[in-house]
Amino acid sequence: MPKPRCDLYFPNTNEDPVLPHTIFTKGGGAQLLLPSLQGALTADVVIVGGGFVGVSAALHLAEAGKSVVLVEANEIGWGSAGRNAGHVAPHATKLNDEKLNAVYGPVYGPRLAKVGAGAPDFVQDLAARLGIDISVVKGGIMTVAHTDAAAEGLKAEAARLTKTGAAVELLSKEATARVVGSDCYRAALVDRRGIAINPLAWVRGLARAAMLRGARLYEHSRMRGMTRTANGWRVVTGQGEVEAGTLLLCTNAYTDDTWPGLKRTIIPVRTYLAWTKPLPDRLRESVLVGISAMIDTRRVPVAMRLHPDGRLQFGAGVGFGAPQQVDLAVAFRRLKDVLPQLEGVEVEGVWNGWVTRGIADGWRIHELAPGLVTAIACNGRGVAMGPIMGRELARYVSGTPRDELIVPLTQPKGIAWYPFYQMFGPTALKALKMLDKMEMARRA
Ligand SMILES: Cc1cc2nc3c(=O)[nH]c(=O)nc-3n(C[C@H](O)[C@H](O)[C@H](O)COP(=O)(O)OP(=O)(O)OC[C@H]3O[C@@H](n4cnc5c(N)ncnc54)[C@H](O)[C@@H]3O)c2cc1C
Question: Is the full-model pTM beyond 0.85?
């Protein structure tokens, strides 16, 4: 058989339907074990996708008195919501405020920056109101500079944030070494507003709260098609269908071809996370002291968080296409370059999920057609911003004028070089890692 020229692999339909075991399984609460959709239902709103955006939209719509049906292809939280690192940074996207203004304009940029700054509070307040135990770890999110230039960047960012009254601290090289447990960094910015949580408990808790308020949620009910009807939209699953005035597509990195062209607006990047067995006491007291989580400034960053039971969670690589058998020894060596004292510690497990990179790296709400809306992109800040975007979708459906939302309603734009990303992505990744390595070597 001729070898295909380009072995394209897409998230969603080609993935293992079982949610992987992660460091969050314990503490993530019981599975919801919801039935699949059978027969024909009607609702005000039908939601496709049971991640943060979808369950939050269901919750906020139910609270606004709308009748809601949500269909999830696998189980609630099966997508990125149940697979992420659980860092909750006080930012709406990975862009700083200046870039936010450039991308979103002078009205929506500052609005988004304000919402992002309050994101950890939003999560904690909503979890408290709904009685969800999300195992909050306080202390702050620490960004660590791997070069002098990156340290200068953090200094400027610290000065800017301090002017806004944010609780941030700029750490010297020595102070950074004491917190991280490694002397290989130049400086650090600790944003004390940031927290870390158990994201699986968060998404399942939001789903339960939505159901308690009357939303009808179905698992193992993949949308197989959607059609316009006289009154709105019909969503068809394997054994059922829902007709509703409004359809919300909340499938993000796992978006399929059901709506032509939507998938081409994002680049899904497979991200691997791993965790160790509990560190010995002497290490626990000297690694990531007093902070929730850290990430360094490399292009392919090292990120980690120490869980209260002593297990260390860390990034184990990124990739494209089908899941790879991760060489954990190689991934762990990269971490041990930073923390050589981890020698002898054992890695316990690894999992992966898809992070979307939008073209401008920010959340988008697209009105795809009358009554058909999606919130998509910027996967890296989804633990707080996903539920916030779900709330925004609910506000829009409930009658909030479009110009009062936190992002403008837009039309999707396809990425020009989309067909080639799986071919060139791995090469680009190698080049980025090489640049990181050269910079790390130069710093010594
Ligand atoms: C490894 C990793 C680490 C991350 N770390 C962080 C972090 O530390 N902090 C942070 O803020 N963000 C992080 N993120 C990003 C964050 O997890 C996402 O932004 C967030 O989960 C997106 O939520 P969502 O609801 O938009 O999408 P998802 O949670 O991915 O949900 C989409 C759902 O749609 C369903 N679906 C797709 N197609 C269909 C269909 N046809 N029919 C029915 N259902 C369908 C899928 O099954 C899936 O459950 C990380 C992501 C990954 C993968």
Answer: yes
